[in-house]
Amino acid sequence: MASAPAPADGLIVILPPAPGDPWRFRRVGDQGVGAEEFAAELPEHGSLTVLVPAAHAPVADKPLPAMPVAQALAAERLALAQGGLAAERHIAVGAANGRLLSSRVAAADMDRWLAALAQAGADPQAMVPAALVLPRQESALVLGALGGQLLARTPDAAFAAEEALVDALGEGLDQTALDDDALAERLAQVHAAPPLNLRQGIYAPRRVSVFRTANWLGLARMAAVAALLGLLLMLVWIVKLDLDSNAQEARVLELAQKRFPAATDLDTAERLLTAELARRGEGGASFAAPTAALLDAMRPVPAVKLRDLGYGADGTLRFTAAAPRAEDINAVLIALQDNGWKVTVPPALAPDPTGATVAAITVRTP
Q: Which of 23, 40, 196, 336 is paired with 61 by a 20 to 30 Å CA distance?
């Protein structure tokens, strides 16, 4: 017999055929599979394999058909699901060593076993019919005992070794018994690689999902705290900048009031300063600034001529421009506006008696 693969540390639980009977288990470690033990509670363990009673989970053993394994399993499941009792039965299929294994178990039994395991704090990844612990041998009936249960396996089935079944299914086959060492070796193989796992379909173990494992409430709280801290930091900076701005404005107003005592706020101080600069002919509102801007805008358009030019005390430059075409005057106006000057023009440009286009225009600081 081939040696068993090294099993992972864990536990093999053997469920009793009758409810209420004690569970038996075997520890799995580096030294292999230990002897049977009884306990009111399951010991600490790693991976867990549960062997269900063979009397409740007989297994049919067939050769795999010449088709992909997934297709063969689906076809076998559909074939077993035919009949009126399909809703009351849990159907499990599997493939191992070129054989197609299938079992029909009462859904009530699956519910009862899983409920008892959950009450014991166990959630097994694999539940295997106990009779599959016996090896399959061509032309032989293999018998064995496990957890107080008599098991049997023929080339075509694995079941509880009831006398009637053994006589009917084992007719014409040589009988062989599995000793304890061989049984322990088979247990290790089944624990490492279950040939047929009943935990499939609606009874499959729940997959670990990031949406189940993540602490979303904690993450939401952290996000809310981070957003609140960001808002508080922003408010601190706004208050700081506002205080700095107020301090600068107060300083500017204080300096302006030394020259213009009538200034009560920055707007008043700005108007008084603009008027003073205009009186002196200085600053952006002086005659020189808008006139220089006008002459600079006219330089690329020699066709534009000035017919009159005037300057008001409010800082407004007034002039009349004439040109053969309206486009020439528009070019000057666009240049002034692009340089930041406030320009006003009549709604429409009209020609004078000489045929030239004439427009009365004003320019001032914005």
A: 23
